Amino acid sequence: xxxxxxxxxxxxxxxxxxxxxxxxxxxxxxxxxLVDLNQDDLDETLNQVKAAGSDGRTYVCNxxxxxxxxxxxxxxxxxxxxxxxLVNNAGITRDGLFxxxxxxxxxxxxSMDQWNLVMDVNLTGxxxxxxxxxxQMIKNKQEGCxxxxxxxxxxxxxxxxxxxxxxxxxxxxxxxxAKELARYGIRAASIAPGYIGTEMVMAMKEEAREKIAAxxxxxxxxxxxxxxxxxxxxxxxxxxxxxxxxxxxGLRI
Length: 253
Ligand code: NAD
Prior knowledge:
Elements: E1 7-11, H1 16-27, E2 31-36, H2 39-51, E3 56-60, H3 66-80, E4 85-88, E5 99-102, E6 105-109, H4 112-139, E7 144-149, H5 161-181, E8 186-193, H6 199-202, H7 206-214, H8 224-236, E9 244-247
Parallel strand pairs: 1-2, 1-4, 2-3, 4-7, 7-8, 8-9
Antiparallel strand pairs: 5-6
Helix pairs in contact: 1-2, 1-8, 3-4, 4-5
The chain binds nicotinamide-adenine-dinucleotide (NAD).
Nicotinamide-adenine-dinucleotide binds near residues 17 and 64.
């Protein structure tokens, strides 16, 4: 796909990896539909997109709400004249041990709130956005591509029962969509980032960051631009579909 003038939706586009993706795609001439919960964050990303010489629109939407997501994709197509790409990037964590034991006694269990919140945003949000994006692409006879942002944690990680389940799920859904939607000219893939130096991670104490970096074969955290670059690679390469790209500096947990 030549990204010039293509419409790409990025959920969680207000900050972090989503913002880096928006800037990478803006530099390639794509028009961005930026989706997030916070209008101020969205405005800042859109300003940066404009400074990079492209354009877009912002949409406040909770990706876990079916009616909001249905209306979102109707609006995007009406406002922007079509839809060619979706990056399912919005995601949250609510970490905690599955079972916490102290002095032989169970002191806590992962709660249903911790479970449901992460399921709602990461898994249901990805399902809903992809479903509505694919429906619009098929209705408008537009070729397209859907990218799910998974994580290195998809193989299992301490304290992340809820998160790891969703990140394995979004990878598997991309494989299913690649198989089901190819006949409509729609591709799907996923990216599993390792530890990436987003603002939040960079705000950690240097000592803590150095400790994480020391355990990575590349001996450094990933840069948001390196994940963004993988997004544009997948969008641009029409023979890529159904696979998960691990971008983690060689780390496997
Ligand atoms: P972030 O918290 O900086 O950004 C996530 C964005 O998603 C935020 O702007 C947030 O407002 C938005 N969001 C959250 N819930 C939403 C909802 N219900 N509806 C719409 N928007 C919502 O996180 P990030 O580090 O940029 O991570 C982006 C994605 O990459 C996530 O899916 C995360 O799991 C994944 N990831 C990140 C890393 C990393 O090291 N940063 C590593 C692996 C995977």
